[in-house]
Specification:
Layout: E1 3-7, E2 10-15, E3 21-24, E4 28-40, H1 47-56, E5 63-74, E6 80-93, E7 98-102, E8 106-111, H2 117-127, E9 132-146, E10 150-155, E11 161-163, E12 168-181, H3 185-188, E13 197-210
Antiparallel strand pairs: 1-2, 2-5, 3-5, 3-7, 4-5, 6-9, 6-12, 7-9, 8-9, 10-13, 11-13, 12-13
Length: about 220
């Protein structure tokens, strides 16, 4: 794994020759060794189509390509950082949640309307995700950001998980998700602001939830 958690809000990445990392611009805190940082103007590994797709909705998050030999400390905005390891599956995560990820992962963009139609697009607005979400697929590590830390909740065919859309961070696996109304749900659990929606995730995989309803 390229990343090592230093504390709750910082990770250290090991950069080796011939391998690339990607990070949010401005997320580098310090580094040692011969390391270069290049602005990525081609929409990441998703290419120009991915970049245009996100810019249509004003949702593009600038990235840096990190190469060379050395170690780099990453952190951003004092947010909590969690390192996730992918083993051939796909992570669905909002672009501004990404602190850094290994270049072995294939980056793409998914239109939320393709998951749940109109309700999928409504979900994007309710959760603050907009109309698109980022996908990372393959084998490698990802460092994501959240408010108050992240907990991983397993999803099984027998036990779907319901999540406050604004506390949702990411999910992976063979997971179906839909937004449903839950009249009175927020009041029952002590949350009285915002629309009464909940995100239902079912199938096999896991969802990552932050300890807050704040956006980054």
């Amino acid at each position: 794994m390229a990343f090592r958690e230093i504390n709750a809000k910082m990770v250290e990445a090991t950069v080796t020759p011939g391998q690339r990392l990607f990070s949010q611009r401005g997320a580098m805190l310090a580094y040692r060794g011969e390391v270069s940082f290049t602005p990525n103007t081609a929409g990441g590994q998703g290419g120009i189509v991915s970049m245009i797709g996100r810019r249509v909705a004003d949702e593009d998050t600038p990235l840096m390509t990190v190469e060379g030999s050395g170690t780099v400390l990453f952190g951003h905005g004092g947010h909590h950082v969690q390192v996730l390891q992918l083993a051939g599956d796909t992570l669905y995560v909002e672009a501004d949640r990404l602190l850094a990820f290994e270049g072995t992962l294939q980056q793409g963009t998914m239109f939320l309307g393709s998951q749940g139609g109109v309700m999928g697009m409504v979900r994007g607005q309710v959760s603050g995700q907009g109309l698109f979400t980022t996908t990372l697929k393959g084998h490698g590590a990802v460092a994501v950001m959240a408010h108050g830390g992240v907990i991983e909740i397993p999803i099984t065919p027998q036990r779907p998980v319901h999540v406050d859309p604004q506390a949702y961070v990411a999910h992976h696996g063979e997971v179906r998700n839909k937004l449903s109304t839950a009249l009175g749900w927020r009041d029952m659990v002590g949350r009285g602001s915002g629309e009464a929606f909940q995100l239902e995730l079912s199938g096999s995989g896991a969802v990552y939830v932050q300890a807050s309803e704040e956006k980054l």
